[in-house]
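U., I forgot to send this yesterday:
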Amino acid sequence: MSPTRAHTSGDINIGGMERSVVAIAGPSSSLTIPGIVVSQIVRVMARTNPVIRINVDDRSDFDSELFRAPSLAAALHDDAELNVVTYDAPRQPGVRTEAFEWWVSTHVNNAVAFVWPGIDSAWVRQFVAAAKKAGATSTVVCASVPRATTSNVTRLAEFIKDADQVLVGRESDAYELRQQLGSDGPHIETHVALQFRRSMPQPAVHKITAFLPKDNMEALSSLLSAFDAIPEAWIDRYRLDVLMRFTGDEAPLLVAGSYHAECINLIGDDISSVLLGEVVANSSALIIADPGFDSRAFSIAVDCGLPVVVVASADLPGVGGGYVGALLADLDRPVSVYVAVIHALRLSDLQFPRPEEWQALVGVIAG
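Result:
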């Protein structure tokens, strides 16, 4: 089977088009932040251009913020995406080069490679070469992430040196690449959508803030069961604030009877918008049960770029589209809530972009 026939899904009609197609290559798994980010870029780009998505995955490399809790943004996405055709890049370098040259044809106007430091990016050089051979503009989009070292960034220089432009998240990363590539290298800019590093270091004690519907004892019981599953050797590093209006004594008694009760604070009073903003901003991660489309807590969390666990009891919530920092958990399964919370805390050193920032990034890529 030739590379052009080895696509996995989707269809586009490129007949008669003159360089209107955008080819986007990068990680694909909806279980990784890099894969979800690529999906958001593809989704926004496909609103205005036919898109060829090329999945480039290294199954042996797990240094990519892998988590087992499903992404809310991915769950809200309809896989029957219009205007996109998807290919899986071969893992053998020689065959992959041939495949890139098949897919990045004369119909392609922009060829975009997404890079996440820590994941093997040697394929980018082949992809850029294919774009150059086809006469397409090549852009390398590189996330700036917390644990990336200067060597991680500068090591990319040999793979991206022939690209037309490079977009990164931090000016310090842009400076290092400019030093490596010199004046003859690609044009290098920064973009806020690629800034995944938090400006402040994470505290030693993780503060988890949960928002539950009024008098929803089932939600409270499920949450407490999930929190009690945290090993005793770890619990000194966690604190849980539960914001839930309640009547009677049932909620306080549930909290008092939990195994880690000394680490839980139940708040039943209404709080002002100002105080709500402070509570959210000072949290490491949020848990929101069945948020409405106008959820203030979710909106503030998105503005702060925080990881959010959305606990759903039935249908998918009306929030979360385009936000890569939200995970989905099942209200009826405490183990699901526990897994999502633990993985949200693993992601708490990341600053997640607002959904509208993907549109701005695509605007820069498209020029």
